């Protein structure tokens, strides 16, 4: 494989057009890995800015009425907006600063977990 461990970036996003191809690649190249799926989501107004973490896969695209494949063993979502899931302008009206703040927070959380994992391995 290419050795990439992060799929879906601003330069090379994973989106509806390439999601199935990306899922196939993950199944082929990372079958023995834990796959963490991260996506933006919409929720209740009072939850904008929250991050959810759980076991299981994500079904991206539900908020924009797309039926796309499920991905991930673990999921992380950042709630970036609120309103009816069928509002066509919702994603366009989401503030980029909210998205970037949540992305930074999620990244810091993942890095903290990696540091703890490394430290625990050194102790064994």
Which regions are unreliable across 5 or more consecutive residues at pLDDT < 50?
none
Give the radius of gyration: 16 Å
The biggest beta sheet, please? 3 strands, mixed
The total count of helices amounts to 2
Q: Would you count the extended β strands for me?
A: 3
Structural class: alpha+beta
The backbone outline, from C-alpha atoms, is globular
Can you describe what's shown?
The protein has 124 residues and is of the alpha+beta class. It contains 2 helices and 3 strands, in the order H-E-E-E-H. Strands 1-3-2 form a 3-stranded mixed beta sheet, covered by helices on one side. It starts with 18 loop residues before the first helix and ends with a helix.
Structure, briefly:
This protein is an alpha+beta fold and 124 residues long. It contains 2 helices and 3 strands, in the order αβββα.
Key attributes of the depicted protein:
124 residues, alpha+beta, 2 helices
Please write out the topology.
Layout: H1 19-29, E1 36-43, E2 51-55, E3 74-82, H2 96-123
Parallel strand pairs: 1-3
Antiparallel strand pairs: 2-3
């Amino acid at each position: 494989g290419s050795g990439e461990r992060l799929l879906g970036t601003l330069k090379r996003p994973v989106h509806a057009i390439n999601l199935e191809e990306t899922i196939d690649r993950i199944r082929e190249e990372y079958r023995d890995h834990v796959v963490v799926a991260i996506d933006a989501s919409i929720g209740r107004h009072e939850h904008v800015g929250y991050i959810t973490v759980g076991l299981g896969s994500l079904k991206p695209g539900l908020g924009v009425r797309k039926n796309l494949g499920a991905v991930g063993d673990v999921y992380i979502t950042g709630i970036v907006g609120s309103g009816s899931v069928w509002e066509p302008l919702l994603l366009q009206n989401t503030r980029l600063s909210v998205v970037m703040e949540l992305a930074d927070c999620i990244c810091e959380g993942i890095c903290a977990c990696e540091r703890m994992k490394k430290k625990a391995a050194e102790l064994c």
